[in-house]
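Entry 14. Structure prediction run on the chain below.
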Amino acid sequence: QVQLVESGGGLVQPGGSLRLSCAASGSMVRINAMAWYRQAPGKQRELVAGITAGGGTKYGDSVKSRFTISRDVNHNTVYLQMNSLKPEDTAVYYCNAGRAGLGVEPPYDYWGQGTQVTVSS
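Output returned:
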């Protein structure tokens, strides 16, 4: 089994920034595709950002100009840099990862347990 552990969530004021991290461990599977999803209370889980095996990225419309996804292949880690945060960004953020062919989009096979991000004054 692959374990995904998120970190970096917390409380931030509107306009602030946070950087989320997700580290994979506990498996011989070499992860090559990663993504972030989020889910607010009463809302459907939605894709925030993804990075495919080939390095291509995609973003949800609501975060495209503000968030950046990146990865550290050597450490099996994915990051989400979140800038200009808004109250509507408040949600539980979930790491998603797996091994996939080039161009295969998320979701992937493994999920983290989530980290809370709250944007409030």
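The chain is about 0% helix and 50% strand.
Filed with the rest of this week's runs.
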